[in-house]
Amino acid sequence: xxxxxxxxxSWESLGKNKVPHGIVMFTRLFELDPALxxxxxxxxKCGVVPECLSSPEFLEHVTKVMVVIDAAVxxxxxxxxxxxxxxxxxTKHQAVGVKTQSFAVVGEALLYMLQCSLGTGYTAAxxxxxxxxxxxxxxxxxxxxxx
Length: 147
Ligand code: HEM
Known about the structure:
Elements: H1 2-14, H2 18-32, H3 49-52, H4 56-74, H5 83-95, H6 100-118, H7 124-146
Helix pairs in contact: 1-7, 2-4, 2-6, 5-7, 6-7
Bound molecules: protoporphyrin IX containing FE.
The site of protoporphyrin IX containing FE has 18 residues, from helix 4, helix 5 and helix 6.
């Protein structure tokens, strides 16, 4: 319906530029919770956030996150099909010390990135549509985290 259309249309150009948009998102994430930096064991190579965000490992993780979002957008009609993958992803994040509450902070950072990129296109309906999708993704990751 309308929600899927809003998500697909807004992702069309963002999804083609994953790294720059992912950097906006993660810059915001580390602003909201700088302690999350410590969970990346390769962070020792860089002292401050801007340096971290240009390290290859960080950019790789940024890309990984954007690819998961891309997969969700491309499977909006059947998010169930991502269940196994997302459960496993949640388990992996439990193993590296990420708390499930932090997934919500990533959601805030995602909305911030959308707001920055879409300008007046960032409407209440669009925000809610994205939040609904992200909540489904995070719910599956959280089930995997607790397993
Ligand atoms: C892997 C941290 C959120 C997607 C990892 C790794 C770390 C990490 C340390 C392992 C090293 C690496 O692959 O770079 C975090 C932190 C997060 C976060 C601190 C903030 C709460 C997310 C979210 C997604 C995601 C929200 C997707 C929606 C991935 C993927 C991998 C990964 C796809 C690779 C898993 C694999 O090896 O199969 N993450 N992550 N991460 N993360 Fe995250």
